[in-house]
From TrEMBL:
One of its GO terms (biological process) is lipid A biosynthetic process. GO terms for molecular function: ATP binding; lipid-A 4'-kinase activity. Keywords: ATP-binding, Kinase, Lipid A biosynthesis, Lipid biosynthesis, Lipid metabolism, Membrane, Nucleotide-binding, Transferase, Transmembrane, Transmembrane helix. The keyword Kinase applies. It comes from Pseudoalteromonas rubra. This is Tetraacyldisaccharide 4'-kinase. Belongs to the LpxK family. Transfers the gamma-phosphate of ATP to the 4'-position of a tetraacyldisaccharide 1-phosphate intermediate (termed DS-1-P) to form tetraacyldisaccharide 1,4'-bis-phosphate (lipid IVA). PANTHER family: TETRAACYLDISACCHARIDE 4'-KINASE, TETRAACYLDISACCHARIDE 4'-KINASE, MITOCHONDRIAL-RELATED. NCBIfam families: lpxK. Pfam families: LpxK. GO terms for cellular component: plasma membrane.
């Protein structure tokens, strides 16, 4: 995390104040853009099946992907055929839209779409043109419902349900818009979403991230016992939460290495680790499998929703006519 990003979660400082004019410009431009879609001055694409957007109003580390990894199987358990679309941040696919497959690399697909595909096996399509992604899915897979991983601000795509994920620990930082703060939209935007879900909150509408074991980065096999100490390496929005999980499991961290969110790892990034054990998240591990070592591990986590979250989601699905039975 660089100096600017750290300042977003600290008391207001000179750097933030100096950037306020740019935040004002960001607000003006984003508000105008949203108004143009709302007034019909820009075309909105309506998919032939329901679309659920899982997004946030801030940048980095809010916990969207763990929620999507829970949401898709939950929808499938209700009898729905689900497909996922994503912009595929940082991905360099050979063509667009791009279907994630067993042979896809993290460089081609992006870390989060690849993780979703590997975990769930459902159709996953990436590309900035969400309409093109959906049209390809409708031709080839005929899903009953589309889940969009991110895209709350992608107003070109009509949505049936908006779910906004909020980090219960960090909330909205200093509450300012980019670049003086971490927000893409003001907290007032939450009033216009269908469901606000708090990552790290078991009471109310939220979910906890439960640890479900350690796995080998090299071959994805479950590991009965890890090394007792090692280096925590991460390229995520909130590395401190991950590192605290490791310490809670009794692992002594000899060092921590932080990279920018979605960082494209290479073997050279681990020069400081020498022969020490390495601990990382599952999202990091999908980018390191090709050069992972025997003593490299990743921690797998699962979203455990509160009863209130499941109840509100069920009500929304019925209200929108997506599910009419069994809830």
């Amino acid at each position: 995390m660089n100096r600017l990003e750290r300042s977003w979660y600290q008391p207001l400082g000179l750097l933030n104040i100096l950037l306020l004019p740019l935040s004002g410009l960001f607000w003006l431009l984003s508000s105008l853009r949203r108004a143009m879609f709302k007034q019909g001055l820009k075309r909105v694409y309506k998919a032939p099946v329901p679309v659920i957007i899982v997004g946030n109003i801030g940048i980095g580390g809010n916990g969207k992907t763990p929620f999507v990894l829970w949401l898709v199987p939950y929808l499938e358990s209700l009898g729905l055929k689900v497909a996922v679309i994503s912009r595929g941040y940082g991905a360099k696919p050979p063509s667009l839209p791009y279907r994630v497959t067993d042979n896809s690399s993290a460089a081609e697909a992006g870390d989060e779409p690849l993780l979703i595909y590997k975990r769930l096996g459902c159709p996953v399509m990436i590309g900035g043109d969400r309409q093109a992604s959906i049209e390809m899915l409708m031709r080839e897979d005929k899903p009953d419902i589309i889940v969009s991983d991110d895209g709350l601000q992608h107003y070109q795509l009509a949505r049936d349900i908006e779910i906004c994920i909020v980090d219960a620990q960090r909330r909205f930082g200093n509450g300012l818009l980019l670049p003086a703060g971490p927000l893409r939209e003001s907290p007032g935007r939450l009033k216009h979403t269908d469901l606000v879900v708090y990552n790290g909150e078991s009471d109310g509408v939220g979910y906890e991230l439960a640890r479900s074991g350690y796995f080998s980065v090299k071959d994805n096999q479950a590991v009965a016992q890890t090394a007792a100490q090692g280096v925590a390496v991460s390229a995520i929005g909130n590395p401190q939460r991950f590192e605290q999980s490791l310490r809670s499991d009794g692992i002594e961290l000899t060092d921590t290495l932080h990279f920018a969110d979605h960082h494209a790892y290479s073997a050279a990034d681990f020069a400081r680790c020498e022969e020490q054990a390495v601990f990382m998240t599952e999202k990091d591990a999908v980018k390191c499998q090709s050069f992972g070592k025997e003593n490299w591990y990743y921690l797998k986590v699962e979203a455990q929703p509160s009863a209130a979250l499941t109840q509100q989601l069920n009500s929304l699905l019925k209200q929108k006519g997506i599910v009419n039975h069994g809830l």
